[in-house]
Design a protein that fits this description.
Helix content is about 50%, strand content about 25%. With about 170 residues, it is an alpha+beta fold. The chain has a 5-stranded antiparallel beta sheet, with helices on one face.
Length: about 170
């Protein structure tokens, strides 16, 4: 169901935005009726074409990153929670590992939270990664990792946020 939802959402957004743009452009030069008709047909054609290409690429990329089942793995907002047998003082080691990623920039860091932003790539306009560290018992910490697009209406990210979450997860487990 999740795959169909992405197809429909991306199709609607791309069809409507492109169709309205074409309708306005042709409406100005060729008349309102002609512009609306061209906008509808152009929007539908463009929407079908771009949806098939982009959403299939997104689904294949996500499937290559995460082979198994995972809740909302095709979503652009990714979330993971884990409990580790470590203490909160080991955070400096994690920060050094995170700094080694050239595409990641630590925006804010406290004992309980790390906020990272990534640079823009062809896959996305950048992501915001939030890592929350909660001490739940002596030498037990709960780590919550959230990665989401900087641009809030992003529909597909080709698995970029999923990759970020899995990368941070592996850093903390190592």
């Amino acid at each position: 169901m999740e795959k169909k939802k992405i197809f429909y959402k991306f199709f609607l957004y791309s069809t409507i935005t492109f169709g309205v743009s074409i309708a306005i452009a042709f409406g100005i030069f060729d008349g309102i009726i002609e512009g609306i008709v061209r906008g509808i047909f152009s929007g539908l054609f463009f929407g079908v074409f771009i949806t098939i290409i982009c959403v299939r690429k997104h689904i294949r990329s996500v499937d290559n990153i995460c082979k198994g089942e995972r809740d909302n793995k095709y979503s652009t907002k990714q979330f993971e929670e884990m409990i580790l047998n470590r203490n909160n003082n080991e955070q400096k080691g994690y920060l050094d590992k995170i700094k080694s990623f050239s595409n990641w920039k630590i925006v804010s860091s406290t004992n309980k939270m790390i906020i990272i932003k990534t640079k823009m790539t062809w896959e996305s306009f950048g992501e915001k990664i939030t890592i929350k560290i909660h001490e739940i018992a002596k030498n037990n910490i709960r780590i919550t990792i959230e990665s989401k697009p900087v641009f809030p209406i992003t529909i597909i990210d080709y698995g970029k946020n999923l990759s970020n979450v899995l990368c941070v997860e592996s850093l903390f487990k190592s």
